[in-house]
Design goal:
Elements: H1 14-58, E1 69-70, E2 73-74, H2 75-118, H3 131-173
Antiparallel strand pairs: 1-2
Length: about 170
């Protein structure tokens, strides 16, 4: 990625350094809140999906669901099928998220090693590392985190849409 500007972040002093640090801290806090909210939302939809399946199964033979159909199939079975798809999409989103966190942790570790190698600071490792190898590894892992982050959002949106379809279908047919 190209670098622009005239000053190095490390050469900033006084108010500029304090302001930049404050902005970076604010960004980190909001990023943490966004990640926590996404995880909460995925888990919430998954929990509601499982509870909905349980509710439908327990009331399958009640008059509420008798003789109701959707697309030529029994309404409860259709809704359970759609909610199951929503749950599976939520599980996939969580796995993408977990792998994304794991790779992000590795990137932070590699960047720390890169900093130590670049500045000739002592580090412990099973073999000697070069800046080029570390930089290549960081770029490769960064591509994976970008892909996994986008996949997480895609699966979350699909999970939400399929759950809403099931909810609307159930509400409309009852």
């Amino acid at each position: 990625m190209p670098t622009f500007g005239e000053k190095s972040v490390y050469s900033l002093e006084g108010e500029d350094a304090i302001h930049l640090k404050s902005l970076n801290e604010r960004f980190s806090r909001w990023q943490e809140k966004q990640m926590a909210l996404l995880t909460f939302s995925i888990n919430l939809l998954f929990t509601i999906s499982v509870a909905s399946i349980g509710l439908i199964i327990n009331n399958f033979d009640k008059p509420l669901f008798k003789d109701k159909s959707a697309w030529g199939y029994s309404l409860p079975k259709t809704v359970i099928f759609i909610i199951t798809i929503s749950s599976v999409l939520g599980i996939i989103a969580l796995f993408c998220r977990l792998f994304n966190f794991r790779i992000t942790k590795t990137i932070v570790r590699k960047r720390t090693l890169f900093f130590k190698v670049k500045n000739k600071i002592n580090y412990d490792n099973c073999k000697e590392l070069t800046q080029k190898k570390l930089n290549d590894k960081i770029k490769n892992l960064s591509c994976w985190t970008k892909y996994l982050g986008e996949a997480t959002w895609c699966f979350f949106i699909l999970q939400t849409v399929t759950f809403m379809i099931a909810l609307l279908l159930l509400t409309y047919k009852l």
